[in-house]
Specification:
Distance between the termini: 16 Å
CATH architecture of the largest domain: Alpha-Beta Barrel
Helix content: 25-40%
Shape: globular
Largest sheet: 8 strands, parallel
Number of domains: 2
CATH class of the largest domain: Alpha Beta
Strand order of the largest sheet: 1-9-8-6-5-4-3-2
CATH superfamily of the largest domain: Aldolase class I
Strand content: 5-15%
Length: about 350
């Protein structure tokens, strides 16, 4: 596709359209990545909840079905020290009693941080792009740079963006306040410092000499065109892809995205211990969106595992995260390949008009 006012990301990543399908752990996977790539975008696999062998297998599945640039996304959080969870369990006690469950005897595995085993996978499967959330993997950074992949990472502030560029990132994902899922705080942890995308984006574009990728609240061609007008070389889109049949979200989450709930997203720490934006549900409404009793990311989710399992089996999402950005209500059910092609064509028409 020609005619984009800034082609730096297209040249960097090799996609036909300057769109990155957001990774979205738990919601994205092989089918969504394949469809986005067939539509001309960068397809992404979320790897934070996978084992190294699962990453290898999923990459092979994608390669067998689609051509184009593939992005592997990893988390770079620091595991918190083990601490008592009595206060969190006490807060959840009425719900345990209601559903006849308790904290899991064997907690499910938490989201994993990028480690040497995953670095070996990157070196082996050689994705075109590797992206990081919550900073970069300091001890393994040189291995990532030598892998041949172009490296992206998320910034929520100017200070984070400058630091990422100084460390050698090839492009920077500018994550605005509007974005669904976990906010990528890593240097500036105060939510009050997190700007809206269209305030942060032009400042980052002026401050760094690499392509910037706009993320947060972009769900249609108007948002893409506006991001380019403010200095973006590409956009990263997540919530709009949740509406696609290829996403892995539950039927309850899918229904909520097309309901009045989609107009009311909120940042919460209840589901993981980290701040993340999602649709309101019973747990958020009754406990409040942010509670100090929740253990630090990613340990907060374990205590909810049994509540979530029983509730989802009964057809409700009372205890499940339903991540979504502030533009959730703008999406519609559409195959991901068609969505990608339509967004790119409509945005390009706006930019050329």
């Amino acid at each position: 596709m020609v005619g984009w006012p800034d082609t730096r990301f297209l040249e960097l990543g090799g996609a036909r359209a300057p769109i990155v399908q957001a990774p979205m752990a738990g919601a994205g996977g092989v089918a969504l990545a394949v469809a986005a790539m067939r539509g001309g975008a960068v397809g992404s696999l979320p790897c934070a909840m996978l084992t190294p062998d699962q990453v290898r297998a999923q990459v092979a599945e994608v390669r067998a079905q689609a051509r184009g640039p593939l992005n592997l996304n990893f988390f770079c959080h620091h595991a918190p020290r083990a601490a008592g969870e009595d206060a969190w369990h006490k807060l959840l006690a009425p719900y345990y009693a209601e559903l006849g469950v308790g904290p899991p005897g064997v907690p499910p595995p938490p989201r994993g941080a990028f480690d040497a085993a995953m670095a070996e996978v990157v070196e082996e499967v050689r994705p075109e792009l590797v992206s990081f959330h919550f900073g970069i993997p300091d001890a393994l950074w040189s291995r990532v740079l030598r892998s041949g992949a172009k490296v992206l990472a998320s910034a929520t502030t100017l200070r984070e963006a400058r630091a990422l560029r100084q460390m050698g990132c090839d492009a920077i994902i500018v994550q605005g306040w509007e974005a669904g899922g976990h906010a990528s705080y890593w240097l500036d942890g105060n939510p009050a410092s997190h700007m809206g995308l269209f305030a942060l984006l032009p400042q980052v574009a002026d401050a760094v000499d690499v392509p910037v990728i706009a993320a947060g609240g972009i769900a249609d061609a108007r948002g893409i065109a506006a991001a380019f007008a403010l200095g973006a070389s590409a956009v990263q889109i997540g919530t709009a892809y949740l509406h696609c049949p290829e996403s892995l979200i539950t039927p309850m989450h899918r229904a909520a995205l097309t309901s009045e709930r989609a107009e009311h997203t909120q940042l919460t720490n209840l589901f993981s211990g980290g701040l993340a934006r999602g649709l309101r549900n019973r747990l958020m409404e009754e406990l409040g969106a942010v509670r100090p009793e929740v253990p630090a990311f990613p340990r907060g989710s374990a205590a909810l595992a049994e509540l979530r399992r029983v509730a989802e089996a009964a057809g409700n999402a009372d205890f499940s995260p339903m991540w979504a950005g502030q533009a959730a209500g703008m999406g519609k059910a559409e195959a991901a390949e068609a969505l990608t092609e339509r967004l790119a064509a409509e945005a390009l028409a706006l930019l050329e008009s």
